[in-house]
Structure of Flavin reductase family protein:
Amino acid sequence: MHGSPNGSAATPVTDIDGARFRSVLGRFATGVVAITGIDGATGRPTGLAANSFTSVSLEPPLVAFCVAHTSSTWPLLREAGRLCINILSEPQLQVCKQLAIKGGDKFADIAWSGSPGGSPVLEGALAWIEVSVEQEHVAGDHVIVVARVHDLDKHHEGEPLLFYQGGYGRFET
């Protein structure tokens, strides 16, 4: 029996294997974003890559993304005030990988300009969205961040960087 009409399942959620969870949910293709800001302590740009990003509300304009509790970059970004969400293009795979590493100069050899609020807009990104953190919700091993949109624009034309089944790729027409 797979479940009952009232929604209860035969297998409790606690019994789901992590590898199986990733494998099944990896069948949902997502775009990839870089969340960037200026570290207030050093004045240098910092950022992280995420594939959990969505629009939330038009009025007021809100978006959301998820960040792992283990992120050493998120505390720096949280304190930055204004952040920039960069929608990455297919040629930006190396940028994505560079922002995903722990430590070091994440912005070495990454070209960027400032958003109206001063956050890094990455050269080659398809679009940018300038935000400030509105709410944070603890959810398992991640934090769901709800952010208010202050400004946004298209940046470059191109194909999106996609994440699917544990790998990166592009959309084929």
